[in-house]
Amino acid sequence: MYLSQLSDEHLVELMSWFTTENELNLWSGPDFRFPFDLNSFKCD
To answer: Cα 13 from chain centroid?
Structure first.
């Protein structure tokens, strides 16, 4: 296993996984904001 520092590029890739609020809630729980941007995703 290789662990690396989280980067903005990683977050942008992760953000692309979620196109609906329901998809995001299933992954993250109810505390992530939707719609999101890079800044709100980082904070949440």
So the answer is: 8
5-27 pLDDT, tens digit per residue, is 999 999 999 999 999 999 999 99
Distance (Å, whole) CA 30 – CA 16 = 18
The two three-digit tokens of residue 20, written as one number: 């609906």
Residue ranges per structural domain of the chain: 8-43
Q: Is the pTM of this model over 0.90?
A: no
DSSP string, 1-44: -------HHHHHHHHTT--SHHHHHHHH-TTS-SS--HHHHHH-
Task: Look at the block and give the residue holding tokens 């977050």.
Answer: 11
